Amino acid sequence: MRYVTVTLLLCIILLSSAAPAISHKGGNVEVSIISDNGTVFQTIPHRDIHRKKTRTIKKYLEARKGENYSIVIRNNMASRVGVVIAVDGRNIISGKKSHLRHSENMYIVNAYGHAQYQGWRTSQDTVHRFYFTHTEDSYSMRTFSDSSAMEVIAVAVFREKDQERFSLFKNRGRQDAAAPKVPSVGEAERSGKDRAGTGFGNSSYSPVVTVSFKPERNPFRTTLIKYEWHDVLCKKEIIECSFQTGNRLWDEYEFAPYPPDF
Fold it and tell me: d(Cα 231, Cα 236) in Å, to the nearest integer?
């Protein structure tokens, strides 16, 4: 099994203090979704659940069509952690169906470090950018015809087991994700036009190195972010929306109306 850490100079970033991170600090690890201009996507808390040793935080996010996004993780702990990240149900390193388990490919975030994950990893040096799109254009549907976990960004955080170090097999020649295939018409129709998804965007240089890390069996914290379009969140009453009727400069009346109490 391989675990990957992001190269310091290119993929570990300092977040600007001018952009207030809307993220949950529980468990001493923060997860934020940011756009390329540095702004944080609006999130709405939903549930906070404790089950055995795992704390699960659920929240909604308002997606913006066509916009690139990155997943930013800040580790405020004194020890490094492993993070399994899945978008639309697929592991962002391997492309395989994710169940957020300790046996999956994961990134490593150093103690008091923070890292930015911009896309689907296709080699040791390359990722293809995340962007919000329709379900039929999503990487999960185009490549795997899988809509079982659409519209969800999931991050499972694992502590290192007893601080042990193990040597791991490293295969530099293997690609971590298959190239996307074109979906059939039937697949696109079944996906639903109003549902969101994450696309397989332009390539970006993002080198990584393989390190030794043995995670605990269960994550101590999991964040699930359900992203949907603005109008869908309005319909579900997740966010408050005001709908204007008509146009104040396009009056359909021919003459001025009487006052109601005239």
Answer: 9
Long-range CB pairs of 120-123 (<8 Å, 24+ gap) are: 120/87, 120/92, 120/95, 120/177, 120/200, 121/4, 121/92, 121/93, 121/176, 121/177, 121/206, 121/208, 122/175, 122/176, 122/177, 122/179, 122/203, 123/175, 123/176
**Closest residue by Cα to residue 112 from 78, 84, 81, 82:** 78
**Alpha carbons 144 and 88: distance in angstroms, whole number:** 11
pLDDT digits (tens, 9 = 90+) for 127-172: 999 999 999 999 999 999 999 999 999 999 999 987 544 333 333 3
DSSP for 184-195?
PHHHHHHH-TT-
Q: What is the pTM of this model?
A: 0.74
DSSP state of 4: E
